[in-house]
Amino acid sequence: MSEKLRIDIVSDVVCPWCAIGYKRLEKAITELGFEDKVSIEWQPFELNPGMPPEGQDLTEHIAEKYGSTLEQQQASQQNMTEIGEELGFKFDYFEGMRMANTFDAHVLLEYAKDFGKQTQLKLRLMNSFFNERQDVSDRAVLKQALLDVGLNADEALAKLDNEEARYEVRNKQGQWKNMGVNSVPTIVFNMKSAVTGAQPVDTFKQVLTDLVG
């Protein structure tokens, strides 16, 4: 195959399984030596499109949305923390942690795509949220993330007040939902086949081997 395998990852920056899913996919790509045979593009999905600007206490949010008890949440978070450690990704869950609105983050990820920095910014934002206790809806936090990956922060932040840029993200979200994507991560290969959830590394290896050859 001369053309690169296109991989679209539909995800949110505050989705723990999206972080785990990507790190497993990355591991599969690296172990197969396919780094030069694939191209990754991140697609917007808000787990909580109605999240208010001030966010919501995470424990309260998960209880409301999924009906999980505190004990269930703690067990799940411990499990994710252990999986993250194996993959080199740190989850730092803490009392008082808040879920954040992520729409602005998605606008900036669209901006970053034009400069080949989308994956770097995505991981930077995930790290900000999950292991640096940062509010990824805060413009100061977003600005620092942009600077950290070498993007023009002022130019990027101007997109947040640009109606066309905001519409583009809303439109893309709608397109993926219309294609049946209603949970994340959803990882789409060449717009033809997809897997959902944080699949094991071996599963990703099998898919990649079948498609890249």
From TrEMBL:
Which InterPro entries does the protein's record reference? DSBA-like_thioredoxin_dom (IPR001853), Thioredoxin-like_sf (IPR036249)
The protein's GO terms of the molecular function aspect are:
isomerase activity; oxidoreductase activity
Q: Which Pfam families match?
A: DSBA
What superkingdom does the record give? Bacteria
Q: Which residues form the DSBA-like thioredoxin domain?
A: 7-208
Record keywords, A-Z: Isomerase
- Can you say what this protein is called? Predicted dithiol-disulfide isomerase, DsbA family
Q: What is the lineage of its organism?
A: Bacteria, Pseudomonadati, Bacteroidota, Flavobacteriia, Flavobacteriales
